Amino acid sequence: MAQALLSIQILPKAAKPEDDTHLYVDRAIEIIKASGVAYRVGPLETTMEGDLDRLLDIVKEMNRAMFVKGSPSVLSQIKLLVHGSDGASMAHLLRKYPDGQ
Known about the structure:
Belongs to the UPF0045 family. InterPro entries: MTH1187/YkoF-like, Thiamine_BP, UPF0045_domain. It comes from Cohnella rhizosphaerae. Residues 7-81 form the Thiamine-binding protein domain. By secondary structure, the chain is an alpha+beta fold. 36% of the residues lie in helices and 30% in strands. The chain has helices at 21-35, 52-68, 90-93; strands at 3-12, 38-41, 46-51, 74-83. The chain has a 4-stranded antiparallel β-sheet with strand order 2-3-1-4. A hairpin with a 4-residue loop joins strand 2 and strand 3. Helix 1 packs antiparallel against helix 2. It is elongated. The termini are far apart. The model has no long low-confidence stretch (mean pLDDT 89).
């Protein structure tokens, strides 16, 4: 499948009002890290780079993990860039901003 960039902001609802949703988000980022795909954590979303089918599988796994942790519902906001011929890459899109500025 095509090379893609997928940015996700996962917003799980906490099981109890006093629960910290950051613990859920930390679990989602652990799943991305364990997947082996290239990724960059940002303040509002995390961007992954790789095969489109693989990235979508990771999103599914992240959502399942939120329910395993006890979340009653999950909202996942996704941005997707797919390039069929030359592939999408973070390095290419960020080449003008090597220092992240």
